[in-house]
Amino acid sequence: MGIIDAIGDLTEEQTAIYEWQIAVPGFGLEGQKKLVAASVLISRVGGLGGLVAYELAAAGIGKLVLYHAGNVRPSDLNRQLLMTRDWVGKPRIESIERRLLELNPDLEIIAVGENISEANAEAAVAEADVVVCAAPLFSERFAMNYEAVRQKKPFVDCAMYEMEAQILNVDPGKTACLRCLYPEEPLGWKRQFPVFGAVSGSIGCLGAMEAIKIIAGFGSPLYGTMLRINMTDMTIRRLSVRRSEKCQCCGDKP
Amino acid sequence: MQITVEFAAQAKAAAGTQIENVDVAASSGVQEIAETVCQKFGEKLRAILMDAQGKLHRSILVSVNDYHIFHHENPNLKDGDRLIFLSPVSGG
Question: Cα separation of A224 and A241, whole Å?
Answer without folding.
Answer: 5
